[in-house]
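Example record

One chain of 245 residues, shown exactly as stored in the release files.
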Amino acid sequence: MLALILLAGLWAGAQNALAGGGSFVTLPVLILGGLSPLAANVTSTVALFPGQVTSGAAGWRLAGGVGSLSFRALFGLSLAGGAIGGVLLLATPSSLFARFVPWLVLFATLVFAWGSFAHRDPARARHLSPLGAGIAQFVIAIYGGYFGGGIGFLMMAALTMAGVATRTAIATKNALAAVMNASAVALFVFSPQVHWPEAATLGVGAVAGGWAGAWALRRIDETWLRAGIVGLGVALTIGLFLRPI
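Predicted structure tokens for this chain:
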């Protein structure tokens, strides 16, 4: 089973480097390996964290704030929100979280599909004030600490609606994703819900997959990759609703 988890880590690492959505791969594989949905989510978050730190650090100098809202303020909001989300997750009974999972995966899939294929005219995009962007980031951080699927597209939407340039928004999103998960991971490492053999195997695969994904970034048609991720999310959602876990 660890061999399958290693392959899932490779896939998730490459997928995150190319288009995001790696948790769509890791969550079902860990559940298939016998982990509860809660344990699978916590273990996956811990395992994929090093890759997020790498991505965030790579573009740290390009990251910025939103108007009068500094990057430090976004940093603090992400850290606090991620911690709140992590506490809420650990306080959720495993049986109750199992009921939430199909809806969370459905929501994440819809967000991913929207972010991947909904092409909007930037000139018609609604404007988000610095205060609105701060509130949005705090709410996204809570969701990120609790579940995390689709946070990249949620942050991209909020940042671009606030008028942040695309290149800066991507770097800021990557940095803040690492920050919000850092506070959650700091809580998770002390939780019995982390299955360390699976987390270590998944983490090694994810790091290697991230390097492979970076190499393949200009060699793979991203449209087909994103379509495959959405298809996987739809299949997983249907499976979870038909056969609750």
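Notes: The longest helix spans residues 94-117.
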